[in-house]
Amino acid sequence: MTSSKTALSVNLNKVALVRNTRHLGIPSVTRAATLCLQAGAQGITVHPRPDARHIRPDDVHALHELLKSWPGVEYNIEGNPFHNLMEFVRELRPHQCTLVPDSEGQFTSDRGWILPADSERLKPVIAEAKALGVRVSLFMDPLPDAMAHAKAVGADRVELYTESYASAWGTPLQAEVLRQFADAARAAMAAGLEVNAGHDLSRENLADFLREVPGVREVSIGHALVSDALELGYAATIKGYLASIDRAFDSGAVA
Fold first, then answer.
1. Which of 57, 107, 62 is CA-nearest to residue 84?
2. Which of 74, 78, 212, 218 is catalytic?
3. How far apart, in whole angstroms, are the C-alpha atoms of residue 93 and residue 79?
4. Residue 78 annotated to the active site
5. Of 53, 90, 95, 122, which cross-links 74 as Cys (Cβ 3.0–4.6 Å)?
């Protein structure tokens, strides 16, 4: 059993995507954050892409101001450090930045960094973020052999890209894919890294993942969570995700 439960960070991109279809300012990203935090979420995540098709720069700044009233809540800003991410890191110094190798205008993140091939260009931006006091997490595929390279470039954490698990969940491949993630998490911890996870996690598949994959400090969930909130409301949705985490730990999440 791990010493503490996995934290839930809510990705608000899809709230902003709906808001951006009109010019009325609704739904409000900061209101969504407030309701999620009031219900017990432990973090807020945004991924401001260069085309600003969902989260916009003013949202990133407004959430930074909001979270000053929520001590202990983590602010995680995701993005490609060679596009617009480092501008926010330098100005706002969030608790964590998650470096993602997406292209400009990409539909959604679809792979992790390739290490050691990407190592040399990552080292300077990781060093800069850490010098500013910002924890650095690298978005990574569940490849055990890559974890030592992630540590070598200076990362503090890896965020395991979980789309392959979500696709395999409920199929005969589920157990095999979970073993890959468990092996990657163990390799990360052996290298001295902490472990996050995210992408297509949901109320349905989250507990199974946390039960089998050791040491997950934080999950970042957006699309499924906001979809649930359309039906259930933010408060009930957050409580549902926290209950999924509780089920994993109550049944003995691996250490």
1. 57
2. 78
3. 14
4. yes
5. 95
